Amino acid sequence: MTPAQIAATPAQPGHSTELRAAAQHLGAGLDRRRFLTVTGAAAALAFAVNLPSAGAAGAAELDSRQITEDPFTLGVGSGDPLPDSVLLWTRLAPRPYEPGSGMPAARVRVRWEIARDERFSRIVRRGWSTAHPEFAHSVHVDIDGLDSDRVFYYRFRAGTWISPAGRTRTAPAPGAANSSLSIAAVSCQAYHDGYFTAYRHLADEDVDVVFHLGDYLYEYAVNATGGARAYTDRTLPGHYNRETVTLEDYRLRYALYKSDPDLRAAHAAHPFVVTWDDHETENNYAGGAPENNVPPEEFLLRRAAAYRAYWENQPLRSPQRPTGPDMRLYRRLTFGRLAQFDILDTRQYRSNQAFGDGWKVPGPESQDPARTMTGAEQERWLIDGWHASRARWNVVPQQVVLAQRRDVPTDAFKLSMDSWDGYPASRQRILNGAQAAGVDNLMVLTGDVHVGYGFDLKKDFDDPSSRTIGTEIVATSISSGKDGAERPANWTNLTQANPHLKFYNGRRGYALVTFGTKEARADFRTVSGVTTPGAAVTTAGSFVTEAGNPGLTPA
């Protein structure tokens, strides 16, 4: 598009004039790579994501004693535990449903403290952090110098207000011969599809860490009664009843989600390790390609807004802080000698979906060896990390189904072009890389599809008798898809078409995985419904995979 055509394009509401003008100034013919490396693009999309500028840092500071309403309505959280540190998070929002969250455009000093006990009688560390208006008054505190493999309690203070207490835990030391690790895997929590009941149960589980595998929020409109929640005791503001596009839209949507008491309870109970999928920005976007036909500059402005709001509202460290429309989210965590977790981003760097997306018959376009799900740099990082790993279990938390998933048990089958089935060459490079690195105990953790699956990962998915080289645990949704069903309509077709599929359940919930030195156990935990609150939790299926003998067997 020419600069004149870009200028004539209807503006996405709320993007600042300066950002749009800078993006438009780049002119015609720039591909995304050049767009992101041109000085003008950096200026257009900077969003001040490093420390606030000198002018902003010199702005007025609010005396926190002037805060007259509880600023901790969004709760607290912790994340990315290391052997000697953990990241603590909160965000000041006295009026979470209002633009600006009821906070003035001023800095606020926030007190934090971390202790060994729930009563905070044994304080380990305390200090101050600044909540900047440029970051929606979020607070990210990286606490270091902590003892490894230990439970801690933390809280924040702003003026006379004290936050709820959170519980977190550091990872075991790098060389520790730890013999047990318990994790939960969660994904897909559409507010408008139901209550977050599963999170209330997860808050009571005895787990060391929670992995969130994407779709923490949805960009879709939420009506005045909260969609399927069908509120009768409240009315949500009208600005939620539209799709998120601008930075303020995404900030308000996170505030809506984090106002949910069950989600807050889970964050307060356990450290989270988060990665996104598509709905944190827009459904089924691929790299710099939007779902719909909007100018690339417009989409990258939206992606920059979405990524910035994501960092503001998650317990992430400064290396994950975005620069414009880019954010380095893939990273590695180790838990002693027992487990290494390589957290992937399969959305930001992927090739566009083949055949226009959807379920399609595979062909030359989807099977092109040049197609990638991770991008070349992330792929090398993953495989190099496996070569260096000394962990018993190598675990890959990521977004979309890795195993082959035919829709019918006939030769006329179709595959999902948004999952790894649409990127088979990329998948094969990853699986070959694991084998070349000598990874004996590979487990993939997945979200996205709103059902629970248990897969054996095969050396050759087209040959059911080929060697099993790993396992995949797919966590069902927290609420997306509403109540679901124990056996969805396609249950027979999928189970017959995919002999490596060992478990399939369509209720809402989460997955628990306990790693030991001899085996890993997966429990699929489900609730009977989410369109009304308070459902009980049950275990829909349990499986084990033996160390050195991959494959799922009923427990």
From TrEMBL:
Domain Phospholipase D N-terminal: 74-170
InterPro entries listed in its UniProt record: Metallo-depent_PP-like, PhoD-like_MPP, PhoD-like_sf, PhoD_N, Phospholipid_Metab_Enz, TAT_signal
Signal peptide bounds: none
Pfam families: PhoD, PhoD_N
PhoD-like phosphatase metallophosphatase domain ranges (all copies): 184-524
Name assigned to this protein: Alkaline phosphatase
Organism for this UniProt entry: Streptomyces finlayi
